[in-house]
Write a structure and sequence with these properties.
Blueprint (H helix, E strand, L loop, with lengths): L1 E4 L2 E2 L22 E4 L17 E4 L14 E3 L4 E3 L7 E4 L7 E8 L13 E5 L3 E3 L8 E9 L12 E5 L38 H11 L19 H13 L21 H9 L19 H11 L20 H10 L17 H14 L1
Parallel strand pairs: 6-12
Antiparallel strand pairs: 1-2, 1-3, 3-4, 5-7, 7-10, 8-9, 8-11, 11-12
Helix pairs in contact: 1-6, 2-3, 2-4, 4-5
Length: 367
């Protein structure tokens, strides 16, 4: 990484990582930078450097070069059927944004002659937003823009269109309970959606509903699944044990982990997972139940919970055969646990509720 100071490029600072991404230390503002990357093998032999990539930091707060969010969900012209009709909207991050503004309009929703109603405006600091309940059998469109800490707005994204179809009415079946050996439901057209913020036409929505009917993952008091939230180490222990065994008996910690306090909801899941060899603690005697679980950690726990064959082949470019988690990487491809992962596993990434639900669902479906 090079910095342009006093009219010339200074000496580079070198950084290394085993990942396919890197976050720099805090950089000085109002300077130009460029960086380049090369790969090294286990013997230390290096590839040629990549081309230089240039960037700068503007600390004036007046820059309108915020970038434009890319809408991730829903896909264009998606027909939603979830009830209550609260649409889950999601978009990509703009690095210098402190919040995002959403404008949502309905086609022919009012008695006026205007095709589109005046838009409703919402703001959020998240990369997602769940709308209030919307009218059925109407088409909607929305757009998003980033706003920085000085309240300066970037450009609007392109419009994304979706609609709600209520032709199925509310005469749908309640999800039947299921246990580990029961087949998964792959078509939810005839069933009520247990969550207001998921869509049963998507894999994430189906996975959440399937795990809900099996008593593995519940929702929140507001009726939402909140699939964007990260999963911690205690939660994934609970999900996996319930997926495999259905019920988990009460058991005490008895000093196994110094930070697992008796009386907490997760004690029986953490201690049972430990007793079954699914999880380990840290060298300081803690378990850190509230820490987010990474993809690598989750794969190990999935493999050990379901007693899966290890050291299967894989094609991930960011998993070296010497990595501790390499022996678990092959189960991703065998059971299609993470369908959105292709060339890169990103083993250190934090897992979300959507990702955990999909991984468990895919295993139950493909086992």
């Amino acid at each position: 990484l090079f910095t342009f100071i006093n009219g010339s490029w200074g000496s580079p600072t070198n950084h290394s990582t085993t990942n396919s991404y890197y976050t720099t230390p805090a950089l000085a503002g109002d300077y130009y930078y460029y960086f380049r990357v090369r790969a090294l093998n286990s013997s230390g032999t290096a590839s040629p450097w990549s081309d230089n990539r240039y960037f700068s930091y503007d600390t004036s707060g007046n820059s309108t070069n915020l970038g434009t969010p890319t809408i991730m969900w829903p896909l264009n012209n998606t027909v939603l059927t979830n009830y209550p009709r609260k649409a889950y909207l999601e978009w990509s991050e703009v690095g210098s944004a402190s919040k995002y503004e959403i404008q949502l309009a309905c086609e022919f929703c009012s008695n006026s002659k205007a095709k589109w109603t005046n838009p409703s405006t919402y703001t959020t600091s998240n990369l997602y937003y769940t709308t209030p309940a919307l009218a059925g059998d109407y088409k909607f469109r929305f757009k998003v823009r980033a706003i920085n800490s000085k309240n300066i707005a970037g450009s609007w994204s392109e419009y994304r269109y979706f609609e709600y179809d209520t032709s199925g009415g509310t005469n749908k079946k309640t999800l039947p309970p299921a246990e580990y050996e029961d087949d998964v439901i792959t078509n939810y057209d005839d069933y009520e959606n247990p969550f207001s913020d998921t869509d049963l036409s998507t894999l994430e929505g189906i996975a959440a509903a399937e795990l809900y009917r099996r008593g593995i993952i519940g929702g929140y008091e507001d009726g939402e699944f909140k699939g964007y939230r990260t999963v911690n180490r205690a939660e994934i222990a609970k999900f996996l044990l319930l997926a495999k065994y259905g019920e988990v008996s009460s058991v005490k910690n008895n000093g196994k982990f110094s930070d697992v306090k008796e009386g907490e909801w997760y004690v029986k899941y953490v201690v049972t997972a430990y007793n079954k060899g699914i999880i380990n603690g840290y060298s300081d005697g803690t378990f850190k139940p509230g820490n987010p679980v990474s993809i690598a950690e989750a794969l190990k726990m999935i493999a050990l919970t379901f007693n899966l064959k290890l050291n299967l082949s894989y094609d991930f470019k960011d998993v070296d055969s010497k990595d501790w988690f390499a022996k678990y990487a092959g189960i991703v491809e065998k059971y299609d646990l993470l369908p959105k992962k292709d060339k890169y596993l990103n083993p250190g990434s934090k897992m979300t509720r959507n990702e955990v639900a999909v991984a468990i669902y895919q295993y139950l479906k493909n086992k």
